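Fig. S4 source data, part A: sequence.
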Amino acid sequence: MLLATTAIAVSFATPVLAQTGADAANSQRGEQGATRPFNIPAQSLSSVVGAFGRQSGLQVTLATPAAGNVRTNAVTGSFTVREALSRLLAGTGVNFRIAGNGRAVVIGTGQSTVDLSAAEGTTVLETITLTGKTGRNSIAGSGYQGTPDWVYETPASVSVVGREAIQSAGVRNTRDVFNRVSGVYAGEGNGSFPTVSPNVRGLQESGRVVVSIDGARQNAQRGATFGGTASYTASAGQGYVDVAFIRAVEIEKITNARSGNAGSLGGKVEFRTVSADDLIAAGENKGGEVNVSRGTNGYDFQGSVLGAVRSPDGPLSFVAGYSRTIMDEYKIGTKGEARSTALTMKDLLGRDGWSTFFKGEGDFGDVKASLSWMHQQNDFVHGSYNVMDRESVRNDSVVAKLDWDPESELIDFKSSLWLNDNMTHELRAARTGGVAGSAGYATETNLDMGLRSFGVSVENTSRAATPVGELSLNYGVEAFRDIASSVATSSAIEKNPSYASSYTAFSPAGRRDVASLFFNGELEPADWITLSGGVRYDWSRLKGRTTYYNQATVATGSNRTVGSVDSYLTYVSQYLPATYSRVYAICMTGVFGGRTFTAAQRASSCNTLNNIWPATKGEIINGQWRDAGTTYFGTTYSTEYPSYDVEIDHTYSAWLPSATIELKPVDWFRPYVSYSQSLRPPTILEAFFAGARPGDSPGYEYAPNQALRAEKATTYEIGANMSFDGVLLDDDSIRFKMAAFRREVKDYIALGYLVTNQVLDRTYTSFVNLDGTTYMRGLEFEGNYDARSFWIGGSATFLKTEWPEKTQVFSNGTTTTTGEIVAWPGDVAPKAKLTLDGGMRFFDEKFSLGARLNHVTPTQSRTLDTEGNLREVTDPYTTVDLYGSYAFNDKATLRFAVNNLTDRKYIPAASAYTAPGRTFIATMNVKF
């Protein structure tokens, strides 16, 4: 067995580059054998990964996060990479291997007690997973909220929330994981909805920020925002993600010429699912974990079980899991005078959901494959005033991946094929009419809305040593299709099919195709500078048919001129007897109803009775008086709803460049500047929008905009990463990331007014482009100091937005729109969000206790107040959270959290719904 292991290790450690020849192979061996200075203090393994990577110049991955707390040795002096690693890990039971043709190091825990690291040309091959040449598989480190070190080595605005941070926070909803990330807001649409629609740097909804699970896009949209300040006026992202199966959330706040950015305007949020390596301890072939959470204030139950097995001698591993969530109605906070929605909207209702997860993985050496499936079922209620609607949502995400990473600098191939199928069934309760301006509906209505998305991505990375420096090229293609369906049924719709358009307006049927070719490169001409840049070509197509209506009053019958047949005196005496009796009595007696009238009043009444009424001529027609000489329509009047079919077949395309310059003047400081362009085509909702607010009548309020243009953004960013180890203590560390950005968005899409060529005398509400440029500027900071016995960190976000005051103006020759803005997709994110996080560890770090202070300024509207500033629609708030954990042993950990400790009453940022009051949550995690 030892000989076999050694043989395999030699085969991995020996560079074999058929494409580049023996000279390149010898060069790689020489690079590995060259000595370089190291100055790494003794510290935890999770902290040492980043330090060793920076000082060695290699990509270093900790493939087994459970080994992150292992204490390593100090390394000071000049050594080869292999010598330094051997000294660093001596006596720890942790081994390593050098992969990626000498450019990457994978560190993991193995059972072998035989140290082969001193043998020339060999490294120990452990039973761990090589994660590629990017080092991004690591999810834990010494950064803010446990952010891995690769984030502080990436010249871009990237944030990561790892599994440990998610579990420690005690989240009620998936979207809560964004609350403490700089530049990101939860963007919740309803207190009971388990949906995810993050706001990144002021951009939200309609695919402006891509949300995906392992690359499977969550593209479902709902136009109605379910009550609040913007009911039926905005897009609402309907991404569903169960965090029980998530190992990390990666947030990129700027687009680039790489996979996953097609159709994105301002970045992406990717939820990465757990794998067998996250559950199986080193040297074992099976493992798993159970999480059980209970709490107060409607936090009834959240629990999950995950298990994994790996074939002892084969390449296969499997993961399966089940999750259950039961949330009841919660109570809002009682402290403070902040405004609240609790009395006017049923936003505090609960939900009931369950999910399953399966993943199969195969590690065949150079080739790796995986197939995963996450199934989610969520049932919940929502409503306003005295009505409640019920929703049942099914979401299936299936992802197949195939990677090929041979011992060649020219090939690092990755591919993905994915499907996301979302189906929502809504049972809308009967309304009596007039709700939010709708026509009302006396019977229950069923609404079935579906969005099926499927796509593919293929990319490769090639690396080469050139006379001007190390060069890597990444290139590929990605494409996806969205197919939307929408069906409304009720007894009223069965009799009048055109009524369905009033229910399907905010979830119309249609098709959207998006494809992208991308190419980017990275050149390191010297140790202190890295240049990167690329270009992507985005193309999209919207295709389908939609129908809109008009409302018209129609008169039928013949017209004629009224003759002098009758006198008005005859009409009053026959059809208005009370009036006739009053005038007659006053004229004849001067007394009526117990009141005596003056002589002048008697004279006036007599003049009316004897002169005016007899002299007024006309006709009495159907009991109504008609003056002589006027036109009488001898007809009845009816309301009709003529319909107009619209065929939509639009394409959008653009070349989108991006570039970054990173400087490394010293080991701990890495400033950068970047530039990128992005394009977001309209969604199916925006392109096929037609109908009206829910009600039993044909939808004649909204019409599609056939001239709708894609949004295009240009983003400038300057930032810096800073990493320090051994600052005040041997094993302390500082991680800091900051960025300033400016984004210019042209043709931003919002709701406004439109005229059509078919209907000349009225305007419709539609999605239209703003007339002018939208500006977003901001500053973001994330940092952490970790001394092992205590930590202190935080994040800060400062955001300023400027919006055009008018939309594009339309005219059909008869009617011209005003350019007024009807509504926006959500409110404006607050100007500032601050989080301070700190805590201490006790008893050899078995027990930790932390606290968080959060301060957020008001959410803003895009309308201006009397002083010309954006109007504030919520109040500022400050909340305090406590959290902690106690590890009984390696297998059992108790976590607890007290969210909103001071029971503050507040409406969260970018939300229209009051947040829960004080909530205590306890979670038991048991590994097996």
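Fig. S4 source data, part B ends here. The mean pLDDT is 84.
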